[in-house]
Amino acid sequence: MRRRAGRTRQHASTRSRILDGAARAVARHGLAKLGMDDVSHSAAVSRGTLYRYFGSRAVLLRDLAQHEGHLLQQRVAEAVRAAAPGAERLRVALEHASQHAREHPALRRIVDTDPAFVMRSIRTEFPAIRALMSRLMGPLVRETTPVRRGVATPDQLVDWLTRLMISAFLFPDPEPEAMTRGLLAVYRLLTEPDRARPRRRRRP
Questions:
Q1: What pLDDT score was predicted for residue 196?
Q2: Fewer beta carbons below 10 Å: N end or C end of the chain?
Q3: Contacts for 139 with CB less than 8 Å, ≥ 6 apart
């Protein structure tokens, strides 16, 4: 039993090592010129080991996308757990998600070198991306002003936020912090309490 558990841990460790190496290889070479040799070199594994875990380049890239989505989910979830309860957690989730997209070298390299691949991937994977954002932000948006007032449902709000973040990722502002500030402005719009409009005085 212990031997099997040890093999399982080793398998997971090697797989994660290959995927991390693949992300570094993408950041270095882009997608168009990326070969399995580049991945095996970056991950420091033999070609035989690489193909034993990932039978083709297409399978590797598919699993890499899932792996990176899981890392994003972990990063945001950990940050949200450490934040104060309430609206502050939505701000933290938006900030960390935008920073992850802005600072990830492989994501930025793909956008620069293979935008057609990025657009195809986003169209294909949008339901999965939205599902990921729903898991991260669904519980947080239920307490926002638009949802409480019945202006939007939590699913609608998550859909809009997902599309907004994808747009910010595809068309980054030259100023690195601008995307985060823009998303935080959206956060304030969503979480600020309603304020009654001052009544106009009637003219005598």
A1: 45
A2: C
A3: none
- Give the predicted TM-score (pTM) of the model: 0.69
Q: pLDDT value at position 107? A: 82
pLDDT at position 6, please?
A: 67
Kindly list the structural domains of the chain, giving each domain's residue range(s) and its CATH number in brackets, ordered by start: 1-55 (1.10.10.60), 58-191 (1.10.357)
Tally: H helices and E strands in the chain:
10, 0
Q: Which two tokens stand for residue 174?
A: 């030259």
From residue 37, alpha-carbon distances to 33, 44, 92 in Å are: 11, 10, 39
pLDDT of residue 26: 92
The residue ranges of the chain whose pLDDT is under 50 are 196-198
- Annotate 143-170 with b (16+ C-beta within 10 A) or e (fewer): bbebbeeeebebeebbbebbebbbebbe
Quick one: DSSP state of residue 46?
-
Taking CA atoms, 192 is separated from 59, 80, 81, 176, 185, in Å, by: 45, 19, 22, 26, 11
* pLDDT for residue 176: 65
Could you tell me if residue 198 is left (phi over 0), alpha (psi between -120 and 50 degrees) or otherwise beta? beta
